[in-house]
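Appendix B, Record 12. Input sequence as logged:
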Amino acid sequence: MKKLSLFFIFTLCLMALGSNAQRKFSVYAVGFYNQENLFDTCHDAGKRDYDFLPNGSYRWNGLKYSHKLHNMARALADMGTDKLPGIGCAVIGLSEVENAKVLDDLTAQEPLKERGYKYVHIEGPDRRGIDCALLYNPLLFKYKSSKLLPYTSVEEKDSAFHTRGFLTVDGTIADEPVTVIVCHWPSRASASSYRERAAFLVKNIKDSILNERPETKIMVMGDMNDDPTNTSMYDVLGAKAEIKDVQDGDMYNPWYNILKKQGLGTLTYQGSWNLFDQIVMTPNMIDLKGKKDYSTLKFFANQIFRRDYLFQTEGKYKGNPKRTHAGGVWLDGYSDHLPVVVYLVKEQK
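Logged structural output:
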């Protein structure tokens, strides 16, 4: 009965589609959210997780960990509910999760457990111990396979540079083949060339998949540590701002104009907004010719997901995302990043 009611609610007639208003469409939400240091309280051998131990710099303990899980589960469950109340996202990419244990604990939180979320995680080489992962609702996303493709350096001097790989997950949404590539590119403590290298590697992954399986819808998502306007995203990955400019081999980036024209972002630095958290997609996911042909799964809308509880409401950091710690103080918050969501539609036959 629960499954039937879920799919009954999930079927929407999208009035926003203008002349297509009398036709019915299924809607799917896809999200990404940087978890900002989702660590448990135990040491993982070989990892530099010492700050997140009871005697570490953050005095990380069971109380703080349980609050962190509760807070993140609340936000994750709310993502996508602006258009899909009670349903939320089919898949959500995550960054900054320590291990499978924290994902077991996260998906056991009631807002996520009730919807039956599963996860994909492969332990990576990051020396601090943070990985990417993918949450998915098995009623909406049919998981097939996954692999972690490594970040490889081109310079011999960087042979010891170990960072997050690219979590590549294959499955189906609306009976169509979908690949999600979850990323957490090198931080801005490293030169821009490191993120441009990440973009080059991801483009190769994307192109290889399309050469083998051209019908696959591919979404690259993650904390890129670069804005949509930066070389890594716009030039190397080819994530274009306007649908009319998207050519074969490019991707579409619906976040470019949100930052450039609206001045909105997902994190702040020295009082200004950046938009590092992005979900970009291959040309077969967009309405290139403006014909409103949604016979196959297509992009429809996107949003930076905002809730009052995600923001600091007072003090020095007022108006910024409410993070777990700031200035050496436990804020009992969420993340230093805001979540992002895209909505996909497919016409019902």
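The CA atoms of residues 17 and 292 lie 8 Å apart.
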